Amino acid sequence: MMPLMSESRNKEFELRPEDVPAFPPTDESGEVDICLIDTLLDMTPTERLQLHAEFSEFAEQQRQQRAKEYGFDPADIGRIEEAE
Fold first, then answer.
1. What is the pTM of this model?
2. What domain range includes position 75?
């Protein structure tokens, strides 16, 4: 009989909630996420552009879904009022 998934895990690598910081490390001001900067700097320019393109596609899909669900995009209300 095979061991259950939880039994076969290596106890040395288990992540406990107390091991995970509540917030990512920031600079001295407390406003700049150092982990995000490090992550993006580890990427090549092409990888960063791909990440941006994927997020832009996701945002557009969400906009289209809102417009389909409500008949308009509720996120546009502020911009529509400003234009009037």
1. 0.53
2. 11-83
Residue 28 sits at the vertex; the CA angle it makes with 24 and 34, to the nearest 5 degrees, is 35
Please indicate, yes or no, if residue 25 is contained in any of the structural domains. Answer: yes
In order of 23, 34, 37, 78, the CA distances from 29 in angstroms are: 14, 11, 15, 31
- The number of distinct structural domains making up the chain is 1
- 42 in any annotated domain: yes
**How far is residue 72's CA from residue 66's CA, in Å, rounded to a whole number?**
7
Reported as a single tens digit per residue, the pLDDT across 31-55 is 888 888 888 999 999 999 999 999 9
